[in-house]
Amino acid sequence: MRIDLHAHSNASDGTDSPAELVRNAVAAGLDVVALTDHDTTGGYAEAIDALRGTSLTLVPGAELSCRVEGISMHLLAYLFDTEEPAFARERELVRTDRVRRAQAIVERCRALGAPIDWEQVRRIAGRGAVGRPHIASALVEAKVVASVDDAFTPEWLANGGRADVPKRETDPVEAIALVRGAGGVPVFAHPGASKRGRTVSDAVIAELAAAGLAALEVDHIDHDEPSRARLRTLASDLGLLVTGSSDYHGSRKTVRLGANTTDPAVYEALISQATGAKPVTG
Ligand code: AMP
Ligand code: FE
Ligand code: FE
Ligand code: ZN
Question: pLDDT tens, 96-112?
Answer without folding.
Answer: 999 999 999 999 999 99
